[in-house]
Structures are given as structure tokens and as C-alpha cells.
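User: Hey, my collaborator sent me this sequence without any context and asked if I could get a structure. I don't really work with proteins. Can you help?
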Amino acid sequence: MDPLNILTGKYSLRSIKPLDLNSCTKEQILEYFENSFSINESLFTTLASEDAFYKCPDRLRLPLIFYYTHTAVVYWNKMMLAGLVEGRLDLYFETMFETGVDEQSWDDTENYRMGGSFKWPPLADVVEYRRKVRNSIHKVISDTPLQLPINMDSPWWALFMGFAHERIHIDTSSVLIQQLPIHFLRLPHDWRVGPSSHGDGMGENKMITVPECEVTIGKPYNFPSYGWDNEYPECVRKVPAFEATQYMITNKEFLEFVESGCYGKKQYWSMEGWQWRNFRKVNHPIFWVCTKGCVSNCGGVLAGYTHCDRGRNGQTSGRHGSNTTGTSNGYSNSLPENNNENDEEYRLRTMCEEIAMPWDWPVTVNYHESKAYAKWKGPQYRIMTEAEHHAIRDKNASDRLDLSRDHLFHNDLKKKFNGNLAFATCTPVNMYPPSKSGFYDVFGNLWEWMEDNFNGLPSSGSHYLYDDFSTPTYDGRHNVILGGCWISTGDEMSCFGRYSFRRHFYQHSGFRVVRSLELDATLPVTLISTVTDNETCFPMGTKVEMVPTTNTQFQYEAHSYLTEFLQDDYTATDGNLLTEVAKVCKEAVQARGGALSRALDLGCGCGKLSFELSKLTTEVVGIDYCESFVKAAQKIQQDGSYKTMLPDGKVIAVELPEGTNPSRVTLKQLTWVPNEILDFDLVVMQGIDRVMNMKAWLLRLCEVIIPNGVVVILSKKGYGVKDFQPIIGRCLELTEDREIPYTRPSGNMDVATLTIWHRK
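Assistant: No problem. I've predicted the 3D structure and written it out in C-alpha cell form, which is a compact way to encode the shape of the chain:
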């Protein structure tokens, strides 16, 4: 069953029910961990050779070896932050496999985070790493006192975060595997393919009316199941009357759009969508298979691969490769014969096979294709909003804290929806029962694209164990997907689940067509205004409201903040705060008797302190999450100066401080402090006033500083020892607490708080 020996436990493609955090036992937690870990590993048994692990199915993603190892690394990293384990299991792996990629745009070149020629470790080594993590988690579950209920403040939350994260990657890795050339794959054991049709077929895709209503979005903080930060808290939204298709749009319906030639007609696409379409040169959904050699957009050595090669070499690309050896090991190497397969205009690539087109399955497309179809359907049509999706759902319980409110905990989940691995493919849109209001596949089968930009709910925050899980995607460039799909398990199939992807991204996602019935009402859609100019491509007469991002860190991307920081940091001469901080840093290191060789500037802003520190040490790393700050600092580093204009037309010109050595400075834009940031004898945290989750950033200080090294924390907002001690007191000892007066460019005096610590 496992010819590549990648399984560190049992083979399983059967998902069990999540846990009640009010009453779960250690035995149940261990069982759920084992199930999560095993399903993810079992998914990779679809790879027919070791070589397939090192292939890149999508040129904007990493090779599959990364995703196989990544989830185990996240377990360890989060357990360390939560204090469940001490020390590193393998720092090299826990750095290399820590963070994936979220490319900035669909036209990014092949610039993998590790570099296109990066040498990945042998498969046997990463399998052994997963085995060690598995065994270690067994010990953590056994040795850690279990105090119920488990909540966000419990160290056990780190384990449940690992379970949920692993299950996300079951979903996303399956999409990447589906993009691989099919000769790299085999059918695994117990692989249930859905039927191509059900009963008499889907028939007409009718529009169903939903009257005006109010819906509750979000999850109560004390609901007894795991949740991601973006799912909290609850909020109420008004939904004007609308109508929507009872089914998600099917392959059969989408064929009309394809055959009309609208992939090549600009008027049906948004500006961003048209640019994407022309760049990718797509003429049909990417998992449809034609005979015209459409490039599949794989990466690396697969860059020229096409799965649209039927008839070009006398055989279908749906055949499995020669390295599949039959069924003796639990795998199948054959597909149903179809003597007329080359006469079919389109076939469908599923995760492991190429099959005759199942026209009654929902079509898998990205957001751009969904929008183009809706516009082609008619000027009054669009796709659904998040609030409208809640309006077509059934309500399961009156008690807001009752587990039965979430269908994820119902025993008949697989009878209601094609999810939780009931099948290993989609199923016909009419196969599962509809909601009480008549809508099919509200959950499961395929994710559903929403009109909404992804954003936090009002008053939401982030969790200190994973501060940058959701918040970087509150940028106006990611859209909401809801409902889960056939392979979604755990939180992804929850009624509270909220996820997102970039609009050009392919997930197992589809859509349904919607039409507003009250054109004078405001559409309940979230469009983010503060980060990017959104293209409001909605039917004429539709009213929408732009809202700010809930990631408060993004507000610093505004030009007004850039000019403020440039003036504060560079133009004041007498009593310049950052110049004084650099002096304090030098004195503090000398007082500890240490040599200053490597300095880290966290929240480096426009780079002034990083440049000042270059006078004192041979290497400085400056990190900030704000792109405009980092770019300005890099410009100063490169050119020695930087100019920008205020709204009143006045030009601000700043220069590199005298006596600095910019060649010693490395400036990086990062949303957090990853494991690659390590081993500094001086760390200055000057961005503490700007981060959303202070605890998340402070916790990393304990590992990035060397023994006896110095940590300096600067705050202009009055944060001090009382705020920091509970977080870092276990590993850092307070050396000094002082106030530093400084002069603002206006001439006014102010005072900053400075606390100095050393590693115990």
C-alpha cells in the first residue's frame, strides 16, 4: 500500500468527527491527531515515484516535498511557542519548511522563496522527521496536564491549531497533486470516485428567491470547538432580498460560456481578470482536457507540460505512468476503457484520473472566471456575498453554544453533504438533499467563491501562536470562499469556517449566479478600501460600501504615515530619538561585557536605527511588515537619499546618516519573525506600538537572542515592564527601565519608554 515508505502511521482516507473542547479526553485528542496526521500522509501515496515529490505542480508554489513536511514543522513551532516542548527537533527543517508562499500576483515569475535551484532534502529524511514529530506529540499529549475546557489561552490550543492546519493542507495539497502530470500519479487504496450523474439528471438550474432577512456571521468566543482568528466574533448583517441558482454552476452550463468564445472577449472580464486570462492564455477551466496543447502552468522542469494532449500522440493523457505496477500493493493502474475518448471535445482531470466529462458536476474555476460567466449571463447577474451564503443555510440549533449548531458534529454529515472525504471527487449537483430553502451543495462538493474581499469581522484580532495566519490576507487582493469541498475535513467543513484565496488561485472552488431584487438597497459585501483600489465590478444600480481593513498594521502603508516616519526619524537633529536609542544599545552591550557583532532591528520603519547600528556592528538585519517603509529604507540604502512629496506639495528629502555603513544592513519585509531570524547579540524592538498582537512578536525574542545578549524595547505609547514581563519574563531578565525625552520635527518635546533586558 505504501511502496515509497512515506507513512509514519496507518493508512487512512476516513475522517472522524472533531472534538468537544468542553469534555474531550486525552484518548480522543490522540485519536483525532492520529487521524489528521494519517490522512495527510495517505494523500501523498497518490505520488507514484519519489521524483514526483520534487516536482512543482504550480510555478507560483513550492514542490510537493515542502507541503508533505510543512505541517509537521508547524506543529513543532507552535508547540514551542505554547511551551509544550523545549528546544528544537531539527532547526534546519523547522526553518526550511516553516513558511510557504503567497505570491503577490498571478504574473509573478518563478521566484520561489527558496530559489528555483534549491536543493531539497532526501525523502527518507523528511519522512523520519515526520515520524519524530508524531512520536513527540504522543508524548506531549501523554505528559501535559489536561485542564478543561480547552480555549484560546490554553497551551493545548497549539495542538488543535496543528490539527486544523494539517487538514487545510489536505485540501490545498490535493489541488497541487491534481495539477501534476498524470503519469506521476497512481490511484490509492479506497479511492471512491463520485458518480457522473444522479437520477434523471440535474434538469433546469432554477433561481430561488430569498426574502430580506438578518443573518449572524461569526463564532462565539466560547463555542466548544477550535476556530481560526478570522472566525470570531459574531456580527449581524442585513441581507436585502435576492435570488440565486439552486445549484452551483455545472460543467454543462459553463460549456455554453466556453463555446461562445467569451474567454477571448474582454467585455466580460474585470481588468484584473482580463490581464490574468491573457497571461495564462486560458480558453477553458484548467482541469478541462482538450486536444489543443494548452500549457498547464506547472513550474521548474514541468514548465512546458500540457494535460491537453489527447490525440496529439495517439493516446490519452489519462493513462497512468509505467511506474505504476498493478494492484498487488493496493493501487490500480488502469482506467475504464472508452473507445470514443478522443472524439470527446472535453474530458475532465480529477485528482488522480482523466475521465469522461461529468456534465452534472459543478465546474471548478477561479474568481475571475466566475465573474466573467456571471457578466456573460446578463448585466444584472453577479456571484454571491458572504452574508447571502448565510441566508441560504439551514439553522441547526437555537442554543448558540450548542455543538449541534454546527453540522460538522452531526452524525449524518456525509449523508447531507459531499464533504469530509465521503468521495474523492465531486458529485452531481442534485445528488445531496437541498437546504430547507431549496439550495443544493450549500456545504461540500466545491468551495464557493464570494464577492467579498477577505477581512476580519468587526472587533476581530489575531492569535499569538499564529499572528500572521489571516491578517496578511486582509489586503483587498484575497476573496472569501465558503462551504468546503469534497476533501474538506475538520474546521473547513464547519458552518463557522471562513477561508480565502487570491482571485486567480485555483482551489476546489465553484460558484452560483445571484441577482439582487432590491436595487436601491446596499449590497452586504465587504470591499476593502485602505490597501488597494478595488475594481467594483457589479451590476448597474447596485450599491456597495467600501470598508477599511481590520489589519491595523496595513494602515501604515498610507503615504501620510511614510512621510510622518521619515520626518520623525531623519529630520530631527538635536535629541533625535533613534540616535539616542543607538547610544543606549551600545552602552547596554558593553555593560554586559559582550561584543556587538549581529543586531536585529524589529519594526525598522524607514531604516534610520538600522543604519545607526551599522556604526556599531558588522551585521544588521532590519525587519518591517510595512512595504512602503521597507522600500523607502532600501532606496536610502542604495542611493544615500530619498525624496517624497506631502499633500501640500512640499518635498521631504532625507539622507543616509553620516558615518553609517549601509553595506552591513539587510532589510526585509516580513509579517512575523520566522526561524531564519536567529542568533543575534542585540535585538531592538522599536515596532511594538504598531503590531496587532504584542505577545506574538515578544515571544520570539526569547529564541532570536543569544545567551547574555541584550534586548531593547522602545515604545512611544507608554508600554513598559508591566506589559512585557508576563510574556518574556521566563527567559529575559530586566536590566533597566528608563524614559528618553526626544524632539519631534515640530519642535515639541515628547517622552519614549525604553526597557533593557538580557537573556538569562
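In plain terms: Residues 164 and 334 are 34 Å apart (CA to CA). You can pass these C-alpha cells on to your collaborator as they are.
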